[in-house]
Amino acid sequence: MSGRCLAVVLVFLLLPLGPVVSGNPNASDVDFEEETGLGPVLDVAGSSIPSTLSPASTLLHLGGHTFDPLFASQSMPGDDGLAVVQFVHTDGHEHLAALNAVEATVLDHLNGAAVVVRLQPNTADLLSEHPAVRWVGAYDEAWRYDARLNDGDVDQYALVVTDDLHPEHLPGLVVELLNSGADEATCGVGQCTVSVSELDVDARLNFLKHLSSDGRFLWIEAAHVMEVHNAVAAGLAGVMDVRSNATFTLDGSGETIAVTDTGLDLDHPDITGRIAGVYTSFGLDPSPADSNAGHGTHVALTVLGDGTGDSSAMGMAPAASLVMYPLEHDPTGVFGRQGSLYEMLSDADQATARVSVNAWGLNGGHGDYTSDSRSVDQYVATFADLLPVFSAGDDGTTGVTPPATAKNALAVGASNGSSLTPWSEFR
Asked: Which of 398, 385, 322, 325 lies closest to 358, judged by CA?
């Protein structure tokens, strides 16, 4: 059969399908879509196949409460302008168009279709009329803190500071917190930590109410104590195999790595000549010494040791330079920090580090996305020049410890091949 005859036969075979399959919706299709939320109906061999648009969640999860705001009491934003905006669909471009029209400032994302914003005065009604908006209402004070704080037992609070508060106002904010009843207070970009251990239960709850009414704070939660985690050797991580079998040089040459931990033995032979800087401004005292458990030196050598002291214990990047951030209080052995993780990561970035190693986590909030987790993500979203690495925790049964729960951090854990495993089994 010639090519021309074959083409004619194919045309005749396909002709009956022409009126059956149509991709062009008519006016009735458009009306149907507007009324039902379903896409145009296409007739295929006598059957109807509606295509459903993916709906956005109608529920909000705030402060331990889950609800549909359309069925809750509504109030307009107060003097601080903080509001929750819920959209009909999950189209981010549509969201920005609606918010930009009223010059709203986005402060946080609650889910794919809801945000916390700061509105300009007298713009809430205008925003609510936008066809992309499902609901607008005040960011209620009861939604701004973890409901587990209501019993008054927690004596350390972590506060998420709004992104539109300029850093030069942070020292004044610390003074205000102290004058309002806090025993101790520290603030950094995006985060404050306060202690209320000297207040009784009623006074703590009053202080919590005061904080939740302050438009400079987005969220209040329990602040957990930092604790160090064990580090594993290069052999367990498979680095020895790579180093032995690779045809290229992979030793950290030309790179700077930041390590945040207890302290550092500055005289250790494995890092001689490769300490680019030691910064104590975020620690609990000005001493860089690793005078208690020696955890910081252990982690630094696991990452950067060149094997001078023990050739069988070479680190993962034995030719890299080290920027160290000691945090431990030498007289007491307390491990903690001053300032936010955003600031500490930014400082390491400015010191030319492209990886920040943090073999520690919080002793509570396992699996939670905390203010520390958010602070890490805030840094990465702003700069994205440095990779934050956090250990997942020492116990494989209780969940990942913050800040390893950050969305843009590399969380490192251990496995025995079938389940998560406590580090203690490798000691």
From this structure: 325
